[in-house]
Amino acid sequence: MRFGNGVVLALVLVCVVVQVNAQLPQVGFGETIAFGHVARLKNDRKTAERFYLQAVELAKDNEQRADALLWVARMQLADKREEKIQVERNRTRTEFVLRTDDAWATVTKAAALTGLSPATKAGIELAKGEVFLAEAKNFAPRKSGIAERWRAELKESPSALLQKSFQSVLDNPAATPDQKLIANMKIAESQLNASGLAVSPEALSNAWFHYKAAAKTAGASDELRANAYTELVKIVRQDRQPAKPQENMDTVGEAYEGIIGLKNATPRQKHRTHLEYAMLLAVNGKTADAQAQVEAARKLTQLDHLEKAQVHQVAAHIHLLGAMTMLDRGVAKAKTELENSVKQPTITDTQRVEVMIKNGTYLRDRASTPMTNVPRLLAVNEFRKVLADAKADDKKKAEAQYEIGETYRVMNMFAEALTEYKKVPETGGIFYSYAQQRIQAIEKQTPAQPK
């Protein structure tokens, strides 16, 4: 039987549609929320927001709809958008502003739903407080006015509003463990935010108490508890610890152990914790314990090429502690780690070049000390590898060339830095501009040599 061209084309289109539909199976609310969570854990917030918005449409009842809307609001709070800000009569500039007004509109939609459980209502109150706190921290020239409207309506100060909003969640018997944990963390965050740059001892003590309570919340998710432990670490590492830290059950090491002990903390949380803990142990002379943390980090899965490279960078850093010359035994071991960082099984040429540049900046900016330039000399080696790499594009080579100049500059080797800056090509884009600025600054400070 013979068919005309039009019939054949129609049959082909039908086959294509059937094939496409076969590749895109219909999913329900739960699966769509799960897809959103996967994107969120990868820090792909825009994709996560799209999945959560789709889940709103797939919700079978208001309980599911409110859950999806609150996830949408969380993604909006973590995002920024470009906005034109008028600075003069005929001139504007582009600013990145927090999407607090979008988040507020989304939370308001959730609050308008009927038939919600007490736990969901508590979640909505918590979300309102989170939006308000984000708005209070928004230093962009344009503010959405949420904080001002709320304060005008309730006739209270921002700090009082925040305390009341989050405390109501803590006092609500229907609130879930996760909600109570987040409320404690937000109270701590608002205490620190209200104190400005000079954190008062009282605010610090209160924040410490609420972060500790959050980390120990029974029944809360491991991911959230790990976040609370991380905030405790930040307070101590920034010399913000209370006047009598011995009265608190959390030291930096104990907080790290707390995260490591959480079975369901995310791979990225454990990755960061193992590496930070390794360095803490190493600088305190506990090399064997530090290396054990590095080995634990090596065994983690679901990490990208840069995160895997960070394990090698920290391992190299530990080997370089105390190295005074390039002949020290630790230098050879550090070089091996750096070489292995670009031998990942699935690494691409572009990623390999990116890792070499990251290796160099890590060695220069984090592994160096006033006592030795050994890590910085190794950093120069990493940058020169990029220059010699046939797969590196011109932009990356310009970046590497500029970073060589930067490394010599921080070593106070200004003549060498000047030579390297001048090698950045005019086609190097922003790195050429940066190099020219450095050249002018060095030549201005360096006396002319007599002829």
Low-confidence segments: 5-25, 240-250
- Major sheet attributes: 2 strands, antiparallel
Instruction: Give the CA-CA distance, first to last residue.
Output: 95 Å
Portion in helices: 55-70%
Secondary-structure element sequence?
HHHHEEHHHHHHHHHHHHHHHHH
Strand element count: 2
Rg on CA atoms, Å:
27 Å
Set down the secondary structure blueprint.
Layout: H1 5-23, H2 29-41, H3 45-58, H4 62-77, E1 80-88, E2 91-98, H5 100-111, H6 118-136, H7 146-154, H8 158-170, H9 177-194, H10 201-215, H11 222-237, H12 252-260, H13 267-283, H14 287-298, H15 305-320, H16 329-341, H17 349-365, H18 374-388, H19 394-410, H20 414-421, H21 430-445
Antiparallel strand pairs: 1-2
Helix pairs in contact: 2-3, 3-4, 4-5, 4-6, 5-6, 6-8, 6-9, 8-9, 9-10, 10-11, 11-12, 12-13, 13-14, 13-15, 14-15, 15-16, 15-17, 17-18, 17-19, 18-19, 19-20, 19-21
Give your account of this protein's structure.
The protein is mostly helical. Among the domains are: 27-81 and 96-116, Serine Threonine Protein Phosphatase 5, Tetratricopeptide repeat (Alpha Horseshoe), CATH 1.25.40; 149-241, no CATH class. The chain is 67% helix and 4% strand. It is built from 21 helices and two strands. It has a two-stranded antiparallel sheet with strand order 1-2. Strand 1 (80-88) and strand 2 form a beta hairpin. Helix 11 runs antiparallel to helix 12 and helix 13 runs antiparallel to helix 14. It is globular. Mean pLDDT is 84; it is low at 5-25 and 240-250.
